[in-house]
Every structure is written in C-alpha cells, then in structure tokens.
Amino acid sequence: MTGGDLLLLLLQIRALPAVPSTSPYITRRSDVPTTGEEEFLNSERRQHIFMSPSEPSTVILDRQLNQSILISPTRGNLPTVTNVHEEVAEILALRMITNARTVDGVRIGVHFTFSKEDDGHFLQLVTSHIHARLPSSRYLFAIATTGASHDTGADTRTSNAVAICGSDEDDVQRTVLLASSKFLERVDAVQNTNTLFTASVRHIGTSSYDAAAWWDVLSNSVRTPTDPHLPPPGSRSIDQVLSDARSKLERMTPQQAYDALHDPTYPVPTYLVDIRPAAQRAHEGEIGGSLIIERNVLEWRFDPRCEARLPIADRFDLKVIILCHEGYTSSLAAAALHELGLLNATDIVGGYAAWTAAGLPGQIRPPSTSSDEKSQLPVSSFLMM
Description:
The protein is of the alpha/beta class. It has helices at residues 3-14, 35-49, 59-69, 81-98, 119-133, 169-182, 208-222, 238-246, 254-261, 278-284, 298-302, 329-340, 351-357; strands at 101-103, 106-114, 139-146, 159-166, 187-193, 196-202, 270-274, 291-292, 319-323, 346-347.
C-alpha cells in the first residue's frame, strides 16, 4: 500500500456514518474516548504531526494529514491512544520519506517531533514504519524528540530521545561515530542494535546547530568512499584559499601603511596589528606602537559584537592593517575580519620583512584606546598573547 493509499483509506474511515449512542445493541467500551478525551487525542496528533519539521513538507501532504488525523466529534468507534500513536508514527514515517534527500543514491532525512510519554517506544514505531515502506531501498534517517518529557516534568528532564535507523549497518555505525563527536558531553545513554541506534541526548532542538549537525552527520555517513589521494569535491588548495582571501582586500605596501597610520586626516581610525608569534617577534624585532594580538584570538578581539573585544573595536569601519612575517598569514587573517563585517581590514604586502627592507622606522604613533581617540594607553596594555 502506498502513502497515498493509506491516506485515502483514513479519509474513507473518517467518512463512515456514526452509530447512534442510544442503540440497545451498543455498549460503550472503556478504551473508547469520551468527548473530552477526543480533544486530547487530537492534541496528541497535532503535536507530533504539525510541529515544524527540520525540513519543510509538501503542501499536498500537509492537507492530506490535516484531513485524515483529526477526530470528528460526531463519529463513533473512536480510536484509542495506542491507535493514535501508531497512526501518527506511520504518518511521520511517510513525511520523512517524502522529505528525504538523496546523497550518493541513499535516502537520508532528519525530523524533530515533540516529546511525549514513552519517547523511545514511539520513535521505534516510526523507524519500523520506515523500514516497512523501504524494504529494498538504501536509507538512513534520524528522528528526535524535543522539549520536556511528560514522564518527569519540564523541571527535571534534560534529555530527549534520538533514534537512527538505516538499511545498512555500516551506515548506522558511521553515523554513531560522527554524531558522538558532534554532541560531545550531551549523550546520557545509548542502545546500539546494528541497524537501529537509540540514545538519550540532552537539549535536542534548542538551537539551529542540532538540525544542521544531524544533516551533516547523515550526509557524510553515506557518501561513497573516494580515492584518498584525490581532493574531495568542493575543496580548495591553499593557493586558491589565499587568492580568494586577497581578492577581498585592498592590500597596502609598507609605505602606504605607514602613511595611513600617521595621516591625521585619514577618514577612519587606523591600527597596525602584529599577529606574529612571540618567538618570531623576539627573533626578528617589533614595531613599537603596533597592537600585538596573537592570531588565535584576533577575531574575538575585533568583533564589535563580542564581549572579549578590545575597547577600540566598537565600530565596523576600523582600518585594521594586519602584519605577519611575509604577508601570507596576514591575508587570511584580514579576510577573516571581513567575514565579521570589518570590510576595511587589510594587510601589508611582504609583511614585516618588507617593512624593514623599506627602511621604515621601528616605531609608529601609539594607538588610542577608543575609536574616537579620546585617550591614550601604553601599548603593553594591548598585548593578547
């Protein structure tokens, strides 16, 4: 039976006429919901089905689901909670299959659903329906619950259930290894049974990172192995990376940089930033008045949105001139500042070696502590080593 056949069948069942409750031959079963319970069942269905998925569903499928899952208050023979969970699990499986991406011939998908009672059992229902629908296809899916569990309450529950199912054991085990590195110190419990992996992971779905991380894990788990000596598709050589970085910059010669640093009419605050390691500075020498900021903290010191920024980094139009030994690392560093929005950042062609070769002084005008240059502070106060 196809997904369309199932939904059509559900519609036909919903259209059956109701049996009058006054019939002498009808005795109400204890497991059939009352009117108040109907609303609860509808809520059960809505929370599992209509939560925004990690990948949007089709409009047609959403309409079919909307017509098929809600209980009519005038209809008899209402389903039990167990039947509702079974029905919702199958519909979620259909949705995941419908929204699946194909990577190297493998269907992959990620879906988040609201946490309910007995999350682990419910997710296993979903995975069993996926397996039943794709008996001969290669697939890999991850489904997780979000929010607080109804078992223990929002104040005590910090973990959510995650299930990974696949048609190939190797795919699932690769996913487990990759996911372990993506969610370090967040995994509480694990159950691994070849093609089905279930775990308890803290705070699933609380940020956009989680959905993106799961898609990345699944994609990398099913990619066809390539020749390790061939560059992966989309990768770039360091020469390409450097060329791309420099294409964003208006690089300066040492003389141009020196002139800009000493021009009182220059339109924006300008700073020379030395990113060379301490050992290199000790061996080659320094330029007095420059800001000494190690490369590994550069972005944090100049991002105006970061709490660890320097006092001078309170605006995005700063002219930050990066200096390294020969002008290679400095180009990559300046391009990184562009990514933060500091579009005036640049570097010196040839680096410190070119500066000394040009005979420029080893001392420049000391920097101020704020971009409006209201005060001065010794250069040693800016050392970020």
